[in-house]
């Protein structure tokens, strides 16, 4: 029972939960590259970091809703690596890599969070607020009056999601 309550509490803490999830992903990616044959324990090289970034962006684009997010160019990536290489050894250790990935993916994750909030919170709320005005539209009014609020809000939310997805395809 305690595990269930802990999981529910994690979901409601939002930012901390998301940071722990990002940390789990970065640790998993870091360990996979560090444990590869012929690699040293000094940290990840530029090539390792570049491949890791491509894999992470591939997962973001595959599993999270929203538009396609392009990874940064090699030049921008090198500048960011230089910024997060605190010990100046041209390699990123576990902590440097975690901070690097957190900064790199922050914009993508906040964009996705914003779209989800609009789709599933704001759209139904606005739909319910405007339902009464829609009831006076000839031809549509009687249908809207018969629909329960939950069904009407769900239809509007689905419409907003479809509009967002069609807008993402155009970009």
UniProtKB/TrEMBL annotation:
One GO molecular-function entry? calcium ion binding
Q: Which InterPro entries match?
A: EF-hand-dom_pair, EF_hand_dom
Q: Which residues form the EF-hand domain?
A: 72-107
Q: Which PANTHER family match?
A: CALCIUM ION-BINDING PROTEIN, EF-HAND DOMAIN-CONTAINING PROTEIN
What is the protein name given in its UniProt record?
Answer: EF-hand domain-containing protein
**Organism source for this protein?**
Rhynchospora breviuscula
Lineage here is: Eukaryota, Viridiplantae, Streptophyta, Embryophyta, Tracheophyta
């Amino acid at each position: 029972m305690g595990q269930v309550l802990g999981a529910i509490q994690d979901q409601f803490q939002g930012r901390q939960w998301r940071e722990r999830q990002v940390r789990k992903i970065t640790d998993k990616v870091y360990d996979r590259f560090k444990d590869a044959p012929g690699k040293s324990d000094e940290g990840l090289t530029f090539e390792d970091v570049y491949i890791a970034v491509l894999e992470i962006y591939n997962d973001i684009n595959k599993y999270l809703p929203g538009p396609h997010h392009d990874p940064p160019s090699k030049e921008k990536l090198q500048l960011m690596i230089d910024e997060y290489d605190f010990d100046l050894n041209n390699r990123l250790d576990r902590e440097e890599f975690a901070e690097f990935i957190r900064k790199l993916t922050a914009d993508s994750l906040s964009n996705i969070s914003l779209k989800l909030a609009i789709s599933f919170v704001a759209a139904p709320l606005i739909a319910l607020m405007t339902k009464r005005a829609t009831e006076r539209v000839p031809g549509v009014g009687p249908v809207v009056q018969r629909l329960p609020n939950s069904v009407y809000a769900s239809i509007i939310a689905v419409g907003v999601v479809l509009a967002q997805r069609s807008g993402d395809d155009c970009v």
